[in-house]
Amino acid sequence: MNSVKTNNDLITLAQWMAGDFSNYKQSFEKPQQFAHIHIFIGFYSEQVYDHDLWTPYRQGVHKLIDQGEQIYIENYSLNDPVQYAGAARELSILKTIKPDCIQRRYNCSMVFKREGEMFRGSVEPGNQCLIEKKGCSTYLISDVEITETTWSSLDRGMDVNTHEQIWGSENGSLWFEKRQSFAGELPPL
């Protein structure tokens, strides 16, 4: 019985994640603190600034795995990310992504658990999702909440030696609203 519930949770999470999200309201209300960002999510995702939709600052490919009490999302990077910019909005580009174009980002998977009408997730434990940024080796701390129509996230890069924040929001979570659902484009799970 529990596996049926979790399998339904996996399908629900995939459907809720699949979409075009924007933090327009947040950026409009506090433009000095929050840039206007779009997140296009499916099993391929892009994060872009509204003023430069063809230059994503983050891209990835994702695989959802049912682990019983939680949903584990493996993250993959693209070998040549520039080649796939815009794939979140252009199906012709998306179709060119093949398994030999991606590499697993070990220690950077996300773990989600359902809490009522929300999924709460974070990067897997251990502080081993390493990212070089601003000339510094950092580990990622990511906290995400997803509902059927919203996405909030707080990503921070912490110095591996001092554990001080090097990059990421200093003003709290980014709050996104779903502008368009891509759930109808998902393959049958």
Q: What can you tell me about this protein's structure?
A:
With 189 residues, this protein is mainly beta. The protein has 3 helices and 13 strands; from the N terminus they run αβαββββαββββββββ. The chain has helices at residues 2-17, 24-29, 91-94; strands at 19-22, 37-41, 44-49, 58-66, 71-78, 102-104, 110-114, 119-123, 130-133, 136-146, 150-159, 165-168, 174-181. A 10-stranded antiparallel barrel has the order 1-2-3-4-5-7-8-10-11-13. The relative contact order is 0.18. Residues 1-6 have low confidence and may be disordered.
- Unreliable segments of 5+ consecutive residues: 1-6
Structural class by sheet pairing and helices: mainly beta
| Sheet having the most strands | 10 strands, antiparallel, barrel
Average pLDDT, to the nearest integer? 91
Order of helices and strands: HEHEEEEHEEEEEEEE
- Enumerate how many helices there are, as a single number: 3
For the biggest β-sheet, the strand order reads 1-2-3-4-5-7-8-10-11-13
How would you summarize what this structure contains?
This protein has 189 residues and is mainly beta. Helix content is 14%, strand content 43%. Strand 10 (136-146) and strand 11 (150-159) form a beta hairpin.
Strand-helix topology:
Layout: H1 2-17, E1 19-22, H2 24-29, E2 37-41, E3 44-49, E4 58-66, E5 71-78, H3 91-94, E6 102-104, E7 110-114, E8 119-123, E9 130-133, E10 136-146, E11 150-159, E12 165-168, E13 174-181
Antiparallel strand pairs: 1-2, 1-13, 2-3, 3-4, 4-5, 5-6, 5-7, 7-8, 8-10, 9-10, 10-11, 11-12, 11-13
